[in-house]
Amino acid sequence: MTDTKTMAYINMFAVLGTLENLCDLDAKAKEILKGTKPISIGFDVKNGPQATIKFANGKCTVTEGCGDCDIKLPFSSVEKFNGMIDGTVTPIPTKGFTKLSFLLKTFTELTNRLEEVMRPSPDALNDPEFFELSTTLTFYTIASAISQLGNHDPISTFSASNIDDGDILMSIKDGPRATIRAKDHKLTTIKECDDAPRAIMKFGSMRLASDLFKGSVNALACIGEGTIRMKGMASMLDNLNRILDRVAVYLA
């Protein structure tokens, strides 16, 4: 069972949120943005998430709220917004009609590239550079989704309520790192490393992380073998793992 409102938050801040990393790491995304003047798109979902995606100097940033934006896309429900992500709903902007070429061309090319990297063909993964990019972006999406689930999913909020205040460091050896910060039973994902986390979950390699994300290996077996390293406050890690199990349900 999935909750449509939770899915909207995941789509906004975990899926679209990964555009930040795509534009930072992917040569093709950099080429798509080349020469683009600063511009922002606001997403306003009734009874759901609001966010602004800003593109400037070849970078992408995603922030909560959409009060100040060049293009505004309203959605009458979370279902409509999820439909846009699925490709079944075409939103009509209420602001920024003169800038629609960016929305229809550049932004669409970026989201298509994101989908290409996040849902790759088996042959594409034979390229080591592409494999690393795909695994890295998947990692960031999952790390961001954990916080959205912990804050909105009816099942995961119970696990989040049992996480003590502090930071949990998630990382892949020689790869990306992210911090899951718990404060008053609310979770926030920070796409960087905390030097003093209360708990650590570290995947032993990119290949292992990719296999885990695909569900082709057993996490408990990996912990037993030591290829997943877990250290620190056990209760934090236990509840994080419960939320992580729910991520697979939403992002399958």
| Low-confidence runs of at least 5 consecutive residues | none
Helix content: 40-55%
**CATH homologous superfamily name of the largest domain?**
SCP2 sterol-binding domain
How many strands appear in the DSSP assignment?
9
Number of helices: 10
**Average predicted confidence as pLDDT:** 94
Strand order of the largest sheet: 7-6-5-8-9
Taking the sheet with the most strands, its summary is: 5 strands, mixed
Q: Judging by the overall fold, what is the CATH architecture of the largest domain?
A: 2-Layer Sandwich
Rg calculated over all Cα atoms: 18 Å
CATH class of the largest domain: Alpha Beta
| Series of secondary-structure elements, N-terminal to C-terminal | HHHEEEEHHHHEEEEHHEH
Distance between the termini: 12 Å
Task: Please state the structural category.
Answer: alpha+beta
Question: Brief overview, please?
Answer:
This protein is of the alpha+beta class. The protein is 47% helix and 21% strand.
Structural notes for this entry:
There is one protein chain. This protein is an alpha+beta fold and 252 residues long. 47% of the residues lie in helices and 21% in strands. The protein has helices spanning 4-15, 19-25, 27-33, 78-86, 100-118, 128-152, 156-161, 206-214, 219-225, 234-251; strands at 39-45, 50-56, 59-64, 71-75, 166-172, 177-183, 186-190, 199-203, 228-232. The longest helix is centred in the middle third of the chain and has 25 residues, at 128-152. The protein is globular, with a radius of gyration of 18 Å. The two termini are 12 Å apart.
